[in-house]
Amino acid sequence: xxxxxxxxxxxxxxxxxxxxxxxxxIEDSYESYFELPRESIFLHLNKSTYVVGEELWFSAYTYDRxxxxxxxxxxxxxxxxxxxxGKPLExxxxxAVNGFARGNISIDSTYASGxxxxxxxxxxxxxxxxxxxxxxxxxxxxxxxxxRDLADTTYDxxxxxxxxxxxxxxxxxxxxxxxxxxxxxxVFEKGSLVNDSGISVMDFDGNSLGMASFPFRPQKDxxxxxxxxxxxKVVTAPLPHASEKGIVLRVVNNYSAEDIFFAVATNxxxxxxxxxxxxxxxxxxDGDIRATRSVVFDNSQQETILSINKDQxxxxxxxxxxxxxxxxxxxxRLFFNNYGIRDIQAEVRLAKKVxxxxxxxxxxxxxxxxxxxxxxxxxxxxxxxxxxxVNIFSEFLLKPYLRGYVENxxxxxxxxxxxKSYDLDLLLLVQGWSRYEWKNIFNRAPVINFPYxxxxxxxxxxxxxxxxxxxxxxxxxxxxxxxxxxxxESPDFEIPNLLVEKNEEVxxxxxxxxGKPSSRRLYAKIVPDSNPSLLGPIELTTPNNYASELxxxxxxLENKTIFLDEVxxxxxxxKFSNIIGKDExxxxxxxxxxxPRVTDFLRVKGYNIKASLGAVKISSRRSLGGAPPVxxxxxxxxxxxxxxxSSSPPSQAQGNGFGGSVKTPDAPVDDPFQExxxxxxxxxxxxxxxxxxxxxxxxxxxxxxxxxxxxxxIWTRRTPLVPTDATAMNKSFIDTTHGFDVPxxxxxxxxxxxxxxFEYTGTIHWExxxxxxxxxxxxxxxxxxxxxxxxxxxxxxxxxxxxxxTIKTIKMSEKSNP
Length: 818
Description:
Blueprint: H1 26-33, E1 39-45, E2 49-51, E3 55-64, E4 69-70, E5 76-82, E6 88-95, E7 100-106, E8 114-121, E9 134-141, E10 155-161, E11 172-180, E12 190-195, E13 200-205, E14 211-216, E15 223-229, E16 233-238, E17 247-252, E18 259-266, H2 268-274, E19 278-285, E20 288-296, E21 303-309, E22 316-323, E23 329-337, E24 345-354, E25 357-365, E26 372-380, H3 392-398, H4 418-431, H5 438-443, E27 456-461, E28 472-475, E29 484-487, E30 492-498, E31 507-511, E32 523-526, H6 570-580, E33 584-586, H7 589-594, H8 598-604, E34 607-612, E35 615-620, E36 630-633, E37 636-639, H9 643-646, E38 654-655, E39 661-662, E40 690-696, E41 711-716, E42 732-733, H10 756-761, E43 765-772, E44 777-783, E45 789-798, E46 803-811
Parallel strand pairs: 2-9, 36-41
Antiparallel strand pairs: 1-3, 3-4, 3-7, 5-6, 5-8, 8-9, 10-11, 11-14, 12-13, 12-15, 15-16, 17-18, 18-21, 19-20, 19-22, 22-23, 24-25, 25-44, 26-43, 26-45, 27-30, 27-32, 28-29, 28-31, 31-42, 33-40, 34-35, 36-37, 37-39, 38-39, 40-41, 45-46
């Protein structure tokens, strides 16, 4: 027996207190609630399944829903990668320009096989009770595919009357939805409505996502819905009882190509309560009301049918709400208007082959100006690693308006046509009321508590300097800013909205009262933008994007790749290899410039760092429970500062000169897993103060139970740090450790193209931002992997806000004209 859910949301006798208004009209309240612009974000990931050693590549698109254009007010995009428990592992900040951004996250060997979440959000989104951040689940494979338990599932049969409820003797449409224990639709061919005598009143068909609907004029009788599926499984649920009095709202969306029809109906028992009462039917979206119709009932008219031309309505999801004479919402329905939405397709062809490179020409097939950006994931045609269930259409045109989970929303926007339109209307029927609650609209208009972020804040101090002698400082030009002179009003200064990349060298100089630069050192740093929070319970229910039917293979790349920041010259790769490619490094001026603090270096080696009030908590991003590492300082093992260690007798705990406790190598550890993971000596420990550092982030069995978080060995400086140039010690630079992350240039891991690993999970190419000319054309190069058939997964947006999502597969042996 399945559970029953139905949306008996409102009735005519609903208490007026729930929707109490502040003496304002519906229109004023609605407009006020959406006065602040709303933005949506879509991340196009190059895949959804990754093998350790690969890079997760993505492009970000931000969208102004009300105006249907790229959202340009926000610059700072927060991208966080979480583990399966919702704990942040990677926290990165990327710069959006004109609504577009790109980035990457390295999936290194410290990632275990399993599920992870990637989330993108902005500070501005925090102003709203509705969460508009983007979140998607990905799969990581480290060596072998994780075996997933196939436990017996339960089934849930949901029966959802259109508009909210049923009324006796009034024709209604009943939505049907059959899902399993994971919330996924269960396909069925036939369902039946059965009366209390066991006689089938009518049959209905299900679609490919486990949904159906049927028209029904309910009586006082008892009815059940029975569905048979699979291997003779049967699920039955009772149809909810119809109300004796009430009003039913129906929408007919697929009858006419030009018009949408609305029916407001009641029964004879209700008419006498409705005499001379004026109801309103509003069609609205994102703060605008496109259509208002009055509905008046008399003793002879039980149903009112209205029609509105589609070109008078909003493109995309519209909401129609019926209000009673006291402006209370009593019925609501979502519907999709495809008028004005372009299904833009693309042509992809092989233009030429040059040695081991292929030149690809792409053209979008659309009239008018088509300047814009596309992101393109190029994969073998037999790939099983691209299982995206969302696309740019579903994230911008559908998700913002729905309150419930939607299975495979991209399905409705891949190949527009009558079947997809019918299925989309069925989806909106069973979704019920809009995501935006009227009690909030009437009483809780958003206010600006979190402003747009358009850069980062520089904070600094010239403590001890006389401002009369040093009235200003000079900041040299950087990648995104011209040079400037800043007048000082106090020893502490702050400059907002700077666009500075991580580890970018920006020199600052204190200026004397005579206008000449001073050699006195000046300290300033980009402050951290924010700290990521844990994922909530709802976010953790994001559906899986598992690679389908992956065979049992050794899922490891054949050749190791040194992962570097964007460096294109071979000599530079060799120059940086001693920093990234080895566990132990010798600290020179180059290392100091790249990682001013020791904690900056530890972050890139796989550790979470939290610094506060002189303490530093460090934990492994990949170990179970986030275990702290074992740390040695000049050969002596340190103990994390916990209540246990702080109470140790003097013979076991000693001062170390850096703050914190010291234990001899043979001393026992008081606290298993060193639970707090706090090491105060790391607070403000600069890389220039150490001579060598060795980091092993993997579990170390030689350290016993405490080795779960890896081992870090630090040696303090015994010899002077020699600068890389003669003037380096006389320069002051902004600490840009917390600047914007710099996207890498795409590189191809060292695959063996002829094996199944590459065919199923490999990446041929990632084009993050292909710029289109006015004719919608663009060209890019990919590696020639010898694949006969290649698939192109394309997402994008033009400057006028038109959306593009398509998948193309071409044969490399064929050429076609553009």
